[in-house]
Automatic annotation (TrEMBL), chain A:
<dbReference type="GO" id="GO:0016887">
    <property type="term" value="F:ATP hydrolysis activity"/>
</dbReference>
<dbReference type="InterPro" id="IPR027417">
    <property type="entry name" value="P-loop_NTPase"/>
</dbReference>
<protein>
    <submittedName>
        <fullName>ABC transporter ATP-binding protein</fullName>
    </submittedName>
</protein>
<dbReference type="InterPro" id="IPR017871">
    <property type="entry name" value="ABC_transporter-like_CS"/>
</dbReference>
<dbReference type="InterPro" id="IPR003593">
    <property type="entry name" value="AAA+_ATPase"/>
</dbReference>
<keyword id="KW-1278">Translocase</keyword>
<comment type="function">
    <text>Part of the ABC transporter complex HmuTUV involved in hemin import. Responsible for energy coupling to the transport system.</text>
</comment>
<keyword id="KW-0813">Transport</keyword>
<dbReference type="InterPro" id="IPR003439">
    <property type="entry name" value="ABC_transporter-like_ATP-bd"/>
</dbReference>
<feature type="domain" description="ABC transporter">
    <location>
        <begin position="4"/>
        <end position="240"/>
    </location>
</feature>
<keyword id="KW-0067">ATP-binding</keyword>
<dbReference type="Pfam" id="PF00005">
    <property type="entry name" value="ABC_tran"/>
</dbReference>
<keyword id="KW-0547">Nucleotide-binding</keyword>
<dbReference type="GO" id="GO:0005524">
    <property type="term" value="F:ATP binding"/>
</dbReference>
Amino acid sequence: MNRLSAQHLTCAYSKHTVLHDLSLAVQAGEVLALLGPNGAGKTTLLRTLARLLRPRAGNVLLAGDDIWRLRPRTAAQRLALAPQSESMTTPVTIEQAVALGRAPHRGWLLPYTARDRQVIEQALEQTGLQALRHRFITELSGGEQRRVILARALAQEPHVLLLDEPTTHLDLRYQAELLALIQRLAQQDGIAIVVTLHDLNHAALCATSVALLARGTLVALGSPADVLTPERLSQVYGVTVVVTPHPVYGTPMVAPVFTTSRASQNTVSQDFVEGRE
Amino acid sequence: MAARRFPEATPRRGRTACIPVLFGLLVLAIIVSVAVGAVVLPLPRVLRALLLPTAPGVEATDATIVWDIRFGRVLLAALLGTGLAVSGTALQGLFRNPLADPFVIGASSGAALGASLAIVTGIGPVSLAAFAGSLLAVAAAYSIAEIGGVVPATALLLAGAALNTFLSAIVSLVMLFNEQSAYAVLNWLLGGLSGRSWPHLWASLPYLAIGLGLIWLLSRPLDALAFGDETAQSLGLPLGWARVAIVAAASLTTAAAVSAGGTIGFVGLIAPHAARLLVGAEHARLIPASALLGALLLLLADDVARTILAPLELPAGVITAALGGPFFLYLLKTRQRDLGAQR
């Protein structure tokens, strides 16, 4: 069964429709990347999947149950969201912040158990935050804040993990570590992951399938190799791109090519641009 | 953001010890407060009169001074300080705003209007009118901010600010047109415990107990709200219910405190901040620490208020503001980041 599926979703903010009749699904062990230009509706889709935004039409099913028929806490036991950023102005420690991920399981009153502590510990370890656990979250860099958000989502022990732009604000090393972690969480722990990404190459490296969005509609859905073609990307993003195989993994690697001033300065092989190689 | 780096992670253990220490200090402060006044009693006599008022060898006057005159007022001061501090903690948490205090959403101006009308017209008890006015004003701010079943925190803050201004204007008008009772109204507005004792304590205790207990039970939701409404929601918190519960509990606490002691300022703003510096921002510890600090603060302020110009009494609210203001400015200057005021 699909861990999470969207059926004919239509979403709108007041009168402005943001998503039109969009359907997709993700299964255990899969990584689905949501791609598309700014304003395509990626974050809106993720918020709808996360039960933060109620769709105008259509359903979000979490393991077959309509997510809006579940109690908020039940939904949070199965599904976790790691947003792009959040308020980090209260001086609590990293450990205290990550511990909140146990709230859906433990409730709002009962103290955390030894098992909760164990899960918190594991989340800190997976995100490399063990040594920083007593630091106040108000003292962290942008990248460290991102890791705290992810660690708290992992402490929820979700069946479905939603990640909003997890690689932005991270340096190259943490980008690579994060992509590897995403793959590991899907393959080893069997979590179904939905991730919005701006970097198409990140998507190609970690996703089992990608959904390309443009102006609120689904343009293409399939494996990275099938979806990330130069023609489709050029059309959707309005910029010329070349796609070559990754030298190590053979997955698609996308690079933009400037057709205006830069092209006349650097002599770009026209064959290459048109993908004739 | 230029993060200040600590090469060694600072363990925050040992900070929990603050709470028993504060409790010890409060007990000590209560005993000392009972001892001071027009007649200063030596501590052994205070203790004997407190613990064994009817025992042989305890002077009847000691027992009267301690039990009938001072102890009730001292306990009331501690209780009101607790109520204001905890209510401030809850509202700062709900609004994620370090400027929030128990009065931000209309509780003080509503109480002031209720009390001034009761004083001017002479109908009914002032404390009951203040209690009702306080709850009505918060309910009004809440329903004004509500649109389609949702109450955005910012809208509630703005509604409270506007309502405070509006109701204060009416209180000023009431005072202007009733010169003969203007002084009594002003005295109430400044806030204090002059002439308050057991009856006020018993009247406000049930509401304070309910409100304080409820806020403490809401510790973990308050922790979640610190990260933003959407994060709290995605952790499974029913946001609407949590907000109603926090506002209701904080308002009940504030209304009970204000009805007994008037609008005593600054305790509810400063105690939560000081507590946060001592034990961190996790509410399960912050709330007890803030409660104890609030109690200490108002108790000491009331001691100063009734002794510094004795036999004349100053309103305790003037003392809390006069001492609390500079202390807060000092904290702001030296510990800005820890207060969460910087970002």
